[in-house]
Protein: UDP-3-O-acylglucosamine N-acyltransferase
Organism: Rhizobium glycinendophyticum
Amino acid sequence: MEHNHFFPPHAGVTLAALAAHTGAELADETQGETIIRSVSPVARAKAGDVCYILSRRNRDDLLSCNASAIFCEKALVSLIPQHIPVLVAKSAQTSFALAGALLHPEGLRPVRMTSEASLISAAAHVDPTARLEDGVEVEAMAVIGANAEIGSGTRIGPGAVIGPGVRIGRDCTIAAGATVQVALVGNNVIIHNGARIGQDGFGYAPGPRGMLKIVQVGRVIIQDHVEIGANTTIDRGTMDDTVIGEGTKIDNLVQIGHNVRIGRHCGIVSQVGIAGSTVIGDGVMIGGAAGVNGHIKIGDGVQIAAMSGVLADVPPGEKYGGIPARPLKDYLREVAETLSRYDSRAKDKGASND
């Protein structure tokens, strides 16, 4: 893939400066003036690109690599062709992430869609009682409700809706078409296109003529440095708050029910569904399409495999998988045993047909 006008190459950073910025060590300091302009995967990297490898499985990709530098850990340096400068890093992926942010800052969050000179578009509606600090951007067709408060450096994308009384901190990005209501949002938060924050949760009680709606009067609290993917939905609490902890990253198409409390620095992948009133600890990782039952607790540092069904509490530090989710080693052993029995039956059937 050639560079395109969406993410043009950087004007150029020397390898010496890039090493200093990322905390890596340039294996040959005489190569410090080499210029880096962009990032690339290993197999198709060319002059001016930087890439990274994580394991010996990248050996074949290196055959076609013409990068101007590669990040890798010390144990993998011998794999790198001699013509390619090496940036030795404790974590190649972390250093590469820092390099990418330096070279392509425009790729870190949704960009401004319009080119109006005014920070606040004439085509936006900002209620007279809303309070916006200096430097807030509001693009066309966005709506800012009564008594909303928005901090400096925050951008509200086109068609986004900020509900009455919502408070949004500084240096946030609320992308096109997102809605934020009944919520308090911290600093440096990214909410991607079409996300829905603060609508009422799914709560009903049986009545003589059908289901009766249970009023939802809690809030959504989103702490600093959270990122929420496109078309993700986070329901407000019933009477308590729904809370997303500092530094947590949530993928696209995730559903988080009312009263859920998610800890700090968690990672939640696409199509995960978390039912109401579940409490999730710090540093928890939940794989794609996993379902988490309501009213349970998941301890700090837990890892949940993709497509798992979590029905009960999970102790801190555990790795769980399967439906119902259980310790991952037990689940994998059961899968291996099942496959072994299947193979045996297939062989027996084949023998009987001979």
